[in-house]
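Sequence in, structure out. First:
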Amino acid sequence: MAAVYIPAQNRTLDAAVEIQAFLAPLGLTYERWPVQEKCSPDAPAEEILAAYAPEIATLKERGGYVTADVIDIKPELPGLDALLAKFSREHRHTEDEVRFIVKGRGLFHLHPEGHDVFSITVESGDLLTVPAGMRHWFDLCVDRTIRAIRLFQDPAGWTPFYEEQGLHNNFEPVCWGPSYLPPGGALPGLVR
């Protein structure tokens, strides 16, 4: 399950209800979906999309999304570092960024207008929607593996618009989650 870390407050949220309550006023959506037992997270993309077809249809109706696909990132992917460089710099999009994590883990840093930067670690079963225009960046966790269903409002996908003075260099790309917290549950600061 996801975990939100707010460095400016040295505060961690790891209960779905707390996470939803924190994210909703900022325009972010967080949900937990049951991981489909009938579909292996390693199944072909078409099978994964078919297994989650009802959930995808609901999201399409709710957000005006017109297409869905599966992104599969793993350590042996050719050009992985170049691909990750596109995601790991602070940027925005003209449409929502929607991700349902099928397998693996990743770390979104979010920088809502007028608010401190915070991070959310996502893993299998987590759905996160980052609204259009919100500054953010994404890093993989140590195992460099994530498989996710993505939804788009434009069939061509989104284009990142990078922030010239992005804050991404001020934060460590470190994944945390309830099972990864140090003793006492306190997280170390993520700022370099």
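Second:
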Amino acid sequence: MRCKICQNEFKPNKYRPQQQVCSQPECQKQRQLQNERGWRLKNPDYFKSLGQEAFWREKRSQYRRLWKKKHKKHLKEYAEKRKKEHQEYMRKYMAGYRATQNVNREKS
């Protein structure tokens, strides 16, 4: 088989029998550049959205601020409701932590 780029004879990889370019680094680089060029032609709008990320983030943070203002009562109720659960969780967590610390001290 002949390489599409350098026209030299080569034997395709046994795992890739449809291989059309030899494994020379220069040919592989050219193949990669051609593939990238072709992909960009097929997807011309892909990179246009990258500049909109900052705009989206700002818009999203504004939405979040407005939602918090509008739902202050709900957030306060939620915090109060979860406060006891969180305290109980921390009590159990710290008891377990202290127990492991005591075991480590006894080993030393």
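Remark: The helical segments are 25-42, 53-70, 72-107.
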